[in-house]
Design a protein that fits this description.
Layout (H helix, E strand, L loop, with lengths): L6 H25 L15 H8 L7 E3 L5 H7 L3 H8 L33 H15 L5 E6 L6 H12 L4 E7 L2 E2 L2 E2 H4 L16 E5 L3 H16 L5 E6 L19 H8 L2 H11 L5 H24 L17
Parallel strand pairs: 1-2, 2-3, 3-7, 6-7
Antiparallel strand pairs: 4-5
Helix pairs in contact: 1-2, 1-3, 1-10, 1-11, 2-3, 2-8, 4-11, 5-6
Length: 324
């Protein structure tokens, strides 16, 4: 294990991944009741990616997310209680109930926002990292995007610009195998998204996105390189989502038993638990206690969200323009 992953760090990593999982499982169940407005895209199954990357970031660093952004938000430090209220469309939400699932943002913790535009995060991260370079500090920016966005011109342009300007940017391609309903084996011309890095003059790394420790190591190296002035890196996480592209997606494009097999053999939480308890440094009872605490947190966030008020008609024209 990495020297930076002491006992406290390991417990923190597990708590973050468990919080993401429980948050997503609860949203999945509650969305089916029809009470949650709008669209929802769940991150369950991909927890190791966001957690392993964001553990290396500080509050001054920035990330740009995707329409599947709940996991990135939680890993970067956005309050799950405020997030739940936002998803329920309540005035107490992170964005006052006006953004919903696909547009959660919290600039106070460096979360530039989930994004309904596929590939929309690349230019944002080029902006934040250019600012960091001009300031001369050691902050970095991380752009998360999916295999579908890997074919978008915005991502190509952002990676090219990041190299031309030698920006402290990290591009994390979360290849979950499907761009909506289209397999990435059909839609991505090369075998690996990371192979495209050489075209933009940056290192490309392929990581098992189910393995928190592999993610943590690769992200740590790329982020240290960026902080030291070494420029951008492209990391491809090979992983999978447990639910459909959106809630209600019947996933008829996936093989029978595919998701169940992933849950049984690849699940990042199960792999993490097995590894950290193997040497007795962390006990199963400690992890069980975190499970219970996280479960109570999510239960409380839902109860609060249901009871909280919705935005009023008077809120309609607020937060539309920014005054400088």
């Amino acid at each position: 294990m990495s020297e930076t992953l002491n006992r406290e760090s390991l417990l923190e990593a597990y708590r973050t991944m468990r919080t993401i999982r429980e948050f997503e499982e609860r949203v999945h169940n509650d969305f089916a009741t029809g009470e949650i407005p709008g669209f929802v895209h769940l991150y369950a199954g991909e927890e190791a990616s966001a957690t392993g990357v964001c553990m290396h970031l500080t509050g001054d660093d920035y990330i740009a997310s995707t329409h599947r952004g709940h996991g990135h938000c939680i890993a970067k430090g956005v309050d799950p209680v405020g997030m739940m209220a936002e998803i329920w469309g309540k005035a107490t939400g992170t964005c006052k109930g006006k953004g919903g699932s696909m547009h959660i943002a919290d600039l106070a913790v460096g979360m530039l926002g989930a994004n309904g535009i596929v590939g929309g995060g690349g230019p944002l991260i080029c902006g934040t990292t250019l600012a960091a370079k001009i300031r001369g500090d050691r902050t970095v920016g991380v752009c998360f995007f999916g295999d579908g966005a890997s074919n978008q011109g915005t991502i190509f342009e952002a990676m090219n610009l990041a190299t031309v300007w030698n920006l402290p940017a990290i591009f994390v391609a979360e290849n979950n195998g499907y761009a909506e309903t289209t397999s990435s084996t059909w839609s991505v011309a090369c075998d690996n998204i990371a192979d495209r890095a050489s075209a933009f003059g940056m290192p490309g790394v392929i990581v098992d996105g189910f393995d928190f420790f592999a993610v943590h190591e690769a992200a740590g190296e790329a982020i240290r390189r960026a902080r030291d002035g070494g420029g951008p890196t492209l990391i491809e996480m090979k992983l999978s989502r447990y639910y459909g592209h959106f809630e209600g997606d019947q996933q008829t494009y996936r093989a029978d038993g595919e998701v169940q097999k992933l849950r049984e053999t690849k699940d990042c939480l199960l792999q993490f638990r097995k590894r950290v308890t193997a040497n007795g440094e962390i006990t199963g009872e400690q992890l069980d206690a975190i499970d219970a605490e996280v479960g109570a947190l999510i239960d409380g966030s839902v109860a609060k969200a249901k009871a909280d008020p919705k935005p009023s008609a008077a809120d309609l024209m607020t937060d539309v323009y920014v005054s400088y």
